[in-house]
Amino acid sequence: MTDATITGDRALPGRLPRLRLSAAEPWLYLAPAIAVVAIWTYVPLLQAFELSFYQWNMLPRSTPRFVGLDNYRNLLSLPDMRQAVVNTVLYTIGLLPLSVGIPLAVALLTGGLSGPLRNLYRALIFVPMIVAPIVAAILWRWLLNEDHGLVNAWLSGIGLGKVGFLSDPDVALWTLVWITGWKLIGFSTLLFTAADSAISPSYVEAARMDGASPWQIVRDIRLPLLSPTILLITMMTILFGAQWSFVYINALTGGGPLRSTTNVYHVMWEYGFKTMAAGWSTAAGMLVFAVFGLIAIGCLAAMRRFAVYDE
Amino acid sequence: MTNRASAGRIAAHVVMIGLSFLAIFPVYWMIQTSFRAENEIFSGGLFPAVPTLKNYTDVLAAMPMLRILGNTVVMAGATTLAQVATGLLAAWALVRWRFPGGALARSLIALSWLVPFQVVMIPNYVLASKLGLLDTVTGLVIPNAAAAFSVLVLYNAMRGFPREVIEAARMDGAGNFRILAEVVLPNLSAPLASVSILCFISAWNDYFWPLLLIRRMENSVVQIGLQFFMTQEGNDWGPLMAAATLASLPILALYLVLQRQVVDSFMKSGIR
């Protein structure tokens, strides 16, 4: 108490500048993070919005030419873009069983496992998550190789014909979905298992006393209490699935064959750095950002509404 | 009843063994192919009959793999240090003070992960080329020097720190930076380790930004080096698998040593 009055008295003359310094202090600590985020995310976002109304080939000497809404109009009328949008939806739908469906089923089935083997499984199924995407691309390219790959050797071994996993337009997209999902299955299973083991055993015990069957326990207790995790992983898959697939599209198929594996992110990349059409690329980017932004808002609302929490 | 329970347990083991096999076999296949002699690449069998290191010597001769690995270590290490430092400072500001604009600053940082990189790649590329960052390791680090993830994880960790301890340190006349460095920081080792691990692995595995920035093999990081190598060598499977194995080795070694911590830090952060 005495301490405070003494410093208070002495501080009086210098009070104003000191106050100002203390008001600025939090911003000093925030400055590095805010600067990076502003310079490399938000300002570029505004610049991309501006660029989307210009035609520009990205050469340093050429000046961007204002074209109004032409970029957007052209994009929306291009079959290219329509194909990319359809494929983006296919990627997302294809990923959901791998990131949510199978892992959830596995977690529900194996919830009772314990002991050292459980830890070994945990350690093994997580591995794909830390394998670099480009390494995943290379090793699956080898396993799925049409002439010498192991998978096709197995397939012909059991009397099935060879599959052009990356060269058949009807198959290639699903191959890329599989590689994207391969990295996620194990990790997602771990997330569901962790959420499942956090469910209080007293609920399950009480239900069992009341004569509930295992399926009823899954349906009425475990699934509702897993709903926050289910919704979270579903949301992440919808928001980021198409981005996760980009590496595999770019490294393995380049969007082909017959543009069957391209998606909106790959189209943006092609416009930007292959065709050098900055305006088209940024206009596509703005549309994608707007759509995914709306989806994100929708997902968050759905989480608030449907997730069941154990209070 | 016990019969049914044990049948369930066997089914659970079968499922987990299947999933483990699916996860680990492709990686195993990559590694064993990398030890196969050229005439043995296409023959089946689970092990190479006569293991050889020739693919590895071929890779080291064909590309500056050691230099590329060095670049990647520097890039991932510097990115991690930067993200931890900026994350600590920002999180400390948000925990220590309630101030006008604080909530806005926090949401701005948090929402930045919603902006897909492909949307801002052209302005970023233009800025990087103006700053002379093309084809440099520095250029790979700077835009990733702060991340929403590290700020938020450290913010949540610091929020649980008892206020009385901070107040007591302040009464003793410690400045805010000293409180952060000497009182708060020593108690944050678990979240710091988790942020560092996650940051290092995601920087190591990052693909898109290096793809834009890097032109030459000797300046590249492993992801792009591998991509170059794949484009050049196409279907030279032995050396390609050796290169991919070399590129994965540091992360797999890290995982071998810190398995529990690695899994936990990924689980805490959600998918991204």
From TrEMBL, chain A:
GO terms for cellular component: plasma membrane. It is a multi-pass membrane protein. The chain crosses the membrane at residues 27-49, 89-111, 123-143, 171-192, 229-249, 277-303. Gene3D superfamilies: MetI-like (1.10.3720.10). Pfam families: BPD_transp_1. Residues 85-301 form the ABC transmembrane type-1 domain. One of its GO terms (biological process) is transmembrane transport. Belongs to the binding-protein-dependent transport system permease family. This is Sugar ABC transporter permease.
Automatic annotation (TrEMBL), chain B:
This is Carbohydrate ABC transporter permease. It is found in: Cell membrane. SUPFAM superfamilies: MetI-like. One of its GO terms (biological process) is transmembrane transport. Its main location: membrane. The keyword Chloroplast does not apply. Belongs to the binding-protein-dependent transport system permease family. The keyword Membrane applies. InterPro entries: MetI-like (IPR000515), MetI-like_sf (IPR035906). Keywords: Cell membrane, Membrane, Transmembrane, Transmembrane helix, Transport. Residues 69-258 form the ABC transmembrane type-1 domain. The chain crosses the membrane at residues 12-31, 73-95, 107-128, 140-158, 179-204, 237-258. Coiled coil: none annotated. It holds the Pfam family BPD_transp_1. It is a multi-pass membrane protein. One of its GO terms (cellular component) is plasma membrane.
